[in-house]
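Section 5.1 Outputs to date
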Amino acid sequence: MSGPYHNTVDKSGKDLKQAEAKAEGQTDRVFALVKKYGKTKVLTARRLWWLYSFDYKEEVLLTSIRRAISDIIRDHTYIYHDGILRHKCPVSGIDTSEKIIKII
């Protein structure tokens, strides 16, 4: 597949299977990042998005990272949201807040 994956509403058959496999691969990579950096860094969806592009040299949508986080939290009871991080977005420069992802 070329370009970032967006959604599966209009997909079926082989195309749907490919999209699901890509999403599962993204989730596995995000989970690996959480395990790698989760003990030493404060992780948010935006930070995982940046780490994903840095570690894997591949662009992915921020919404894909958020979906992967939801999947990970659903499937792994030792990872959860822990509070809110308020900060200035390095891209837009506006004040923002994000949920913090923690390993317990």
